[in-house]
UniProtKB/TrEMBL annotation:
It comes from Dorcoceras hygrometricum. Residues 222-345 form the Fructose-1-6-bisphosphatase class 1 C-terminal domain. Belongs to the FBPase class 1 family. It catalyses: beta-D-fructose 1,6-bisphosphate + H2O = beta-D-fructose 6-phosphate + phosphate. Pfam families: FBPase (PF00316), FBPase_C (PF18913). This is fructose-bisphosphatase. The keyword Hydrolase applies. Signal peptide: none annotated.
Length: 358
């Protein structure tokens, strides 16, 4: 048994870790953020309490039978007015988080993948939140995991004199290297919030009996190498030469790691990244498809805090300066040695983008 951050960490016979208090009790997210763990400050604790509440509501919505295609059809029976049609869950999730962040009083501006421009909430809110409210939502009908991705910055007080639209945009376009915290919530067989406050990556699992997120994966460390890659192999012939050579090499076991790699692809970014954090390897999309502000920066922050890397195929994601709110780029996340080997092939960014229809 070891002790970190004011809590003891016990290892079970299976090798799993869990955090416990001195009296053997479990550790919740709120407790971990407090003086016994990270001690991130009261304002960030308040913000996370509202974000936590919003994500629990989204988890319930995603799991509801009335949000499948059948449920939407059932709910629409007897009404032909467009106003009676259910909103897409992406929009509902966005509205839930926006309402929660507004009520927290701790957020100056929220920038979302679902909105064209940032939404200014409070002049004195100390934080800026960027997010993808429901990643992978088109997979819900097949009960494939979905997720919420978020990043948190400090408000740039030096911009307070600017007009609302301008300061909202500039606050939202901060470099990922300035993140105060980031995280994702995985909605799957379990609801898991994985987050970092700049001193390690930790995962908390929702206990439905109490409504608390419980620390179940403290100080996640991604392996230096994995044996799994996650990418849409059906696009192989659109890939550049370097990426094809890399994939051909590692799946034959002829790369720097002398084992044959396996492919595991869920087509849900949060789920593919979550598995990569736990088991190592790479999760990637070589196209200019994923958004720097909402997806690449928050997940790269988590990867680095777990000892991994986030790359655009050429260099570090967190070193990039966003120039547009919805800026897209290739994204490669995972084990540091795997990322470095991938980058060594030189030509791994897919420039041909046919605009696939699914």
């Amino acid at each position: 048994m070891s002790s970190r951050g004011g809590f003891d960490f016990k290892t079970s016979a299976s090798g799993n870790h869990r955090a416990v208090t001195d009296d053997g009790g479990i550790v919740t997210l709120m407790e971990y953020m407090g003086k016994g763990g990270e001690n991130v400050g009261d304002e960030l604790v308040v913000l996370f309490s509202h974000l936590e509440y919003a994500c629990k509501r989204i988890a319930a919505l995603v799991a509801s039978p009335f949000n499948s295609t059948l449920g939407k059809t059932f709910g629409a029976v007897g009404g032909s007015d467009d106003r009676d049609k259910p909103k897409p869950l992406d929009i509902v999730a966005n509205d839930i988080i926006l309402s929660s962040l507004r009520k927290s009083g701790k957020v100056s501006v929220m920038a979302s993948e679902e909105d064209d421009a940032p939404v200014w909430l409070a002049d004195d809110g100390p934080f800026v939140v960027v997010l993808d409210p429901l990643d992978g939502s088109r997979n819900i009908d097949a009960s494939i995991p979905t997720g919420t991705i978020f990043g948190i910055y400090n408000r740039l007080v030096e911009l307070d004199h600017l007009p609302v639209e301008e300061k909202g945009m500039l606050n939202s376009l901060q470099s990922g290297s300035k993140l105060v915290a980031s995280g994702y919530v995985l909605y799957s067989s379990a609801t898991i919030m994985c987050t970092s406050f700049g001193s390690g990556t930790h995962a908390f699992t929702l206990d439905h009996s109490t409504g608390d997120f419980i620390l179940t994966h403290p100080h996640i460390k991604i392996s230096s190498r994995g044996q799994i890659y996650s990418v849409n192999d059906a696009r192989y012939f659109d890939w550049p030469e370097g990426l094809r050579r890399y994939i051909d090499t590692v799946r034959q076991g002829k790369g720097q790691h002398p084992k044959k790699y396996s492919a595991r692809y869920i087509c849900s970014l949060v789920a593919d990244f979550h598995r990569t954090l736990l088991y190592g390897g790479l999760a990637m999309n070589p196209r200019d498809h994923l958004r720097l502000v909402y997806e690449a920066n928050p997940l790269s922050f988590l990867a680095e805090q777990a000892g991994g890397k986030g790359s655009d195929g050429k260099g570090r994601i967190l070193s990039l300066q966003p120039v547009k709110l919805h800026q897209r780029l290739p994204l490669f996340l995972g084990s540091p040695d795997d990322i470095e080997e991938l980058q060594s092939y030189g030509d791994v960014q897919q420039k041909v983008n046919p605009g696939y229809e699914v």
